[in-house]
Design a protein that fits this description.
It contains 18 helices and 11 strands. Strands 2-1-3-11-6 form a 5-stranded mixed β-sheet. Strands 8-9-7-10 form a 4-stranded mixed β-sheet.
Length: about 450
């Protein structure tokens, strides 16, 4: 993980130099018995006239889908014998579908991967080890700094290739805050500040909306994981056990439940009504809430959609006097072990992360690219909201510290977390009962 910090330092330095010159801006287990012979029967498939098809899956909104489809179109033009079957959806649907596909033996050839889930898939033997491809140059990542390659490792095995690196925060629209007569949040705010600002927004917005979406459940990261780390703990320990105690979870769910009871965040039925809607219809874009937890790389999408004001971002709130919660986040591409066309899949990944035209389309879609030339190239292409996103990444990466990989069973634990948070929201469980149920079942899943 220290090497991950080195990677971000390299990328950030490149950005700072370019912006300054512009006029305006653990270890996991190896897959025992896994062969690193990259299907010698496929070695000529990229050069032959034989028509083959590979599949590629990703998560995102309609804007990302358009960009990725454009990149795939370019790839198919350059490699007319390789057709790409395109599979995409929202974040939660993506992981549910991928789990089912891996279990059923029909996973896509190339999958989008995330640091929070990679060790689970790698330890199940679902991801192909890329070491031989990279060392031979078949998957040419020679422009990647060593730290960039290492960020895609579980143990000593390269199992994913970085598309981009980002940092999350809370975004707001200046025009919305100006209309409400509410001061913008401070960049370096505490959870007490967050709650106070939420009540101030609710008072100003009245019956027309709420301060912020319900952040109590959903994924374990980044919000709750930040909170646990700020409490001196973490979601998981280095040896794959639960890393936080009952008091941390009680404090978290109590904070959100109180705001829900006071009407500062939406009720459970309203939250479910808006869940999974496209960007243009969600609660932030339609101004039903004034704050939204978001990765910085998505800021520009909301500025394009909302049309007025600037979309700005502040870091996630922190616990006063506690350690920082930030850790490095990234988006990656992996080849599945079940893929019958690993060579073509590798060619697709190489094209995606290094082709000039592809990089210009991607820009900072999931954070600045990891490759040196690619990161230099996109700096020339950034819009003002994308520049603000890069600035946020630069500011917060300096606060980031290593985080343990999620263990096998993360999907079940995360579902358990979401289900109990929802039970509180609907009044089906008290906070105390939900905490007890979660802790007992999560420890059972993780073998404690």
């Amino acid at each position: 993980m220290k090497r991950n910090l080195l990677l971000l330092s390299i990328i950030v330095l490149a950005f700072l130099l370019l912006v300054g010159c512009s006029s305006n801006e653990d270890a996991g287990e190896t897959n025992e018995g896994e062969s690193n012979d990259n299907n010698s029967g496929n070695t000529s498939e990229n050069e032959s006239d034989e028509q083959i098809e590979i599949s590629f899956s990703w998560w995102g909104d309609t804007g990302r889908h358009d960009k990725y489809n454009e990149i795939i179109d370019l790839f198919e033009e350059e490699y007319p014998n390789i057709k790409v079957d395109r599979q995409f959806g929202g974040w939660e649907d993506y992981w549910d579908r991928l789990t089912t596909q891996v279990s059923g033996g029909n996973a896509p050839d190339v999958v989008s991967m995330h640091q929070f889930y990679v060790s689970d898939y790698a330890r199940r033997g679902a991801l192909h080890v890329l070491n031989d491809m990279v060392e031979s140059g078949e998957l040419d990542l020679s422009d990647f700094p060593e730290a960039a390659l290492d960020s895609g490792k579980v143990g000593e095995d390269i199992v994913m290739v970085a598309k981009g690196i980002t940092m999350p925060g809370y975004v707001y629209n200046t025009a919305v805050f100006d209309d409400l007569g509410v001061d913008y949040p401070e960049y370096d705010w505490t959870w007490d500040d967050f709650v106070d600002k939420a009540y101030e927004i609710k008072e100003a917005i009245g019956e027309d909306g709420w301060a912020v979406e319900d952040g109590s459940g959903g994924q374990l990261q980044p919000r709750f994981r930040y909170f646990a780390r700020q409490s001196g703990q973490d979601v998981f320990t280095e040896d794959g056990k639960l890393g936080f105690d009952e008091q941390v979870l009680t404090d978290w769910w109590t904070m959100w439940d109180q705001m829900r009871q006071d009407g500062v965040i939406p009720d459970a039925a309203t939250s479910n009504e808006y869940e999974g809607l496209p960007l243009e219809a969600n609660m932030f874009a339609t101004k039903k809430v004034a704050l939204l937890g978001l990765p910085a790389n998505q800021m520009y999408l909301y500025e394009e959609q909302m049309g007025e004001g600037e979309i700005n971002i502040v870091r996630h709130a922190h616990i006063e006097g506690g350690p920082n919660g930030e850790y490095i986040e990234g988006a990656y591409l992996s080849i599945t072990e079940a893929s019958p066309h690993k060579d073509a899949a590798a060619k697709f990944i190489e094209f995606f992360v290094s082709n000039d035209e592809a990089v210009k389309i991607f820009k900072t879609e999931q954070g600045p690219p990891a490759g040196t030339e690619a990161s230099n190239l996109v700096m020339e292409e950034l819009t003002p909201p994308e520049q603000r996103a890069v600035e946020h990444i630069q500011n917060t990466v300096a606060l980031a510290e290593p985080a343990p990989y999620a263990p096998e069973g993360i999907n079940e634990v995360e579902t358990l977390f979401a289900d109990n948070a929802e039970a509180i929201a609907f009044g089906q469980k008290s906070v105390e009962q939900a905490v007890t149920d979660f802790m007992n079942e999560a420890k059972s899943i993780l073998g404690e």
